[in-house]
Amino acid sequence: MTLKERVQEVLNQVRPGLQADGGDVELLDVTEDGVVKVQLTGACGSCPFSTMTLKHGIEMRLKEMIPEVKEVVAL
């Protein structure tokens, strides 16, 4: 399984919580140096807490499950 596939699998575990609040996350890219690029959509795209969701929710979970992940950025 590729790194990108592993990241997508973890994001699929996180998505129901985001979707319950009217938002979602879309995986755009995973670089070779472990940077995951995502786009927050729906309510998450305009939420003032989206940075917290990104860093303390999505990024923390990805780093916990996949040690190769160094950072998650929203585009």
UniProtKB/TrEMBL annotation:
Annotated GO biological process: iron-sulfur cluster assembly
Regions that span the bilayer: none
Domain NIF system FeS cluster assembly NifU C-terminal: 7-73
Name of a matching Pfam family: NifU
Coiled-coil positions: none
GO molecular function: iron ion binding; iron-sulfur cluster binding; structural molecule activity
Family: Belongs to the NifU family.
Protein name from the UniProt record: Nitrogen-fixing NifU domain protein
